[in-house]
# Entry
Amino acid sequence: MNNKVIIVTGGAKGIGEGIVRTLAAEGALPVIVGRNKDDNIRVVDSVRQSGGNASHVVSELSDPMESKRAVDEILKTHERIDGVVNNAGVNDGVGLENGNYENFMMSIHKNLVHYYLVVHHALSALKESRGAIVNISSKTADTGQGGTSAYAASNGGRNALTREWAVELLPYGIRVNAIIVAECFTPLYAKWIEQFSDPRAKLKEIESKIPLGHRMTTAEEIGNTTAFLLSARSSHTTGQLLYVDGGYVHLDRALLKE
# Structure
């Protein structure tokens, strides 16, 4: 992946940061697209200090106009795009009973619309490079969660776009795949777990429901799979939804009985 320019939305924190660090370690040039300049620069500087390369663009992707501006800026600076990792988003808890139209649509923009727009504006460059696309998605589209209709719908859309784009982009040799995440430990997850009266016990309870190793997935593990899907090592893999989740979604719940 030497010197391949890879857009990583939401690449300054959590799963996105794990992806950026892995890509940089593989010799790629990840470009973080994130809303917070200080967070972006922190990761870019850290990657460079570790001997890798990275850059960033400040962009609020929930604004539809920002996707084009970000892509244009990347092309102006780097003159090519070899891959896109759509990752930015947040489980914002817009539910059915307690939600409303305005918040639902805002969440769809925050979690799905920019997946389409970033790739739409980067497509000409991806055609030239015969690049690859990876959409980061969530198990909520498969399992439901309760109280998060907009986020679940967005992830269902991410999965559908993955297979739709894989078909549409076949003539250009552009591969499109998705990684489905279940329970991955990130700073945001750590902050969420602290709301419980006994965070350690709650985390242990969650981990007990993850079949493989009874532990959380790491951001590095998501990054490793992302690098594989972007690289020539996965040259005949497209239209796939890969579950990097320790068997959380699909393995028999009987395995979890004490």
